[in-house]
Amino acid sequence: MAPDRSPSRKSSAASTSRSGGSLRHIMKKGPWTANEDALLMEYVRKNGEGNWNAVQRNSGLMRCGKSCRLRWSNHLRPNLKKGAFTQDEEALIVNLHAKFGNKWARMASQLPGRTDNEIKNYWNTRLKRRQRAGLPLYPVDIQPLNQYQPQNLQPSPSLVSFITAVDGKPKHSTPISIFDMFNPTTPPASTSQNQPLPSFLSDPSPNFKPAHNKNGASLPMPSLQFNCLNFGIANTVPVSHASFAQNDTGSGSNMGLPAIQSLVPETTSSGSDYMIATSSDADDRDEGHDHQGLSHGNSGLLEDVIDESQALTRAEKPKETCLNAEKSQGEFLWDYKLMEDVGGNVGEESDLNAILDEPYKDSTPTHSSIGVETTNASSQKSNPVEDDLFNLLDDIPLPVTMPDWYDGNGNDIDGQCSNWIEGDAGKENHQPEPSYSPVATTPEITDNNWTDGASYWKNLPGIY
DNA sequence: AATTGAGCCAACCGCGGTGTA
DNA sequence: CTACACCGCGGTTGGCTCAAT
């Protein structure tokens, strides 16, 4: 930290709070002085973190709450790790970015002592450097799971698999051309994996609503068959409900993630009226609330759970499920490679767990404030990860009617694990911690074999 | 010695979610 | 139910340092 490197930062040295209200004072901006740091530290020491706007009121600091929070979290809070990233940390950042994209807070939660700002800065400089060098963002052995690389506009393998049936063949006639469905002048085109990315992938307003005719019935929606990598499922979704986080292909600095929106039948009469259930919008923001616990209602949190569930599950069943589909295309998903890279032996649970658990073990309360035990008794079972994760997935409510590919045994027709996440599951998590209750399942789910487990949220591996 | 550009870093801004009166 | 305040995240900006030219 080099405070006071310049007398004033940015354009102004002071401003008023945006929210006005109780903060009508002129707020100082720019670099923090040692005196301000001392004031803030003293305040936090006495009053604890939070209620940042009260800092200004009670401490005499002429800083807005936001500024205080930022200063504290990025520079003053204990257990902060200073200095350059270690090689391990760098590798982890790459892997996490491949998995999460620009979810700095989420990444930071996996890197004890590091802040999202640090990681973001590191990544951005690394990104620039690699782009300038014409290098891919990720090492060749790491394929981003949720994004395409911006160096070119060709779909990344993961994107291809994302929009391609799990058996390597599109299950619908126009799985890519349907991206242009919103341009009525664009006729359906034949599928080509080399086709440039659909325009809406870079559309900053990617949320679409189903078209309706005069009678209110949904117009026919082309379906997007995609290999839902996040959830380890293949599913068929009307393309209008599959949205993608904004991708800034121009700068390449915005490594947007495809975000999955599932469908929740809003009415059952027509079977065609849906509402957007989850999760891209919430995902853009909510992952940061991971730090704060389940009570925040966090679709991103569930996504985290699913992410980790899938990763762990695949660690257990690397030769089954989703992986086959990817390998059938001659592709290895990055997380599979990660398992290989880290453990050297795909399927060795201990190695993967070492990767996945390590951050939890080291997590400071800031990083694990969710309150879920980071070690769970079930982990001592003979096959704990698989059991817990499948049980978790079993317990996810599925108000959606089961798609036709679902064979009723928790597998889709390709044998993939099938867990369709719906919006409310992502929005809930309001159960009081730490006693997370099992999520109610719908009768049709209960009728299936999805609920033969009794694993609850609390049985999950540690969630930061 | 001066200039330039990359790298690094700190901080601000806007936005959206959440809590509460 | 609504408005407001608070909070946190991701994006962005801009200053400083340092090495190369």
Automatic annotation (TrEMBL):
Domain HTH myb-type residue range list: 24-76, 77-131
Biased amino acid composition, Polar residues: 363-383, 432-442
Bias (Low complexity): 9-24
Domain of life: Eukaryota
Keywords of the record: DNA-binding, Nucleus, Repeat, Transcription, Transcription regulation
Domain Myb-like span(s) in chain numbering: 24-76, 77-127
Statement: the UniProt record of this protein carries the keyword Transcription: yes
Main subcellular localisation: nucleus
PANTHER family reported for this sequence: TRANSCRIPTION FACTOR GAMYB-LIKE (PTHR47995:SF23), TRANSCRIPTION FACTOR MYB33-RELATED (PTHR47995)
Name of the molecule in the record: Uncharacterized protein isoform X2
Gene: LOC140006581
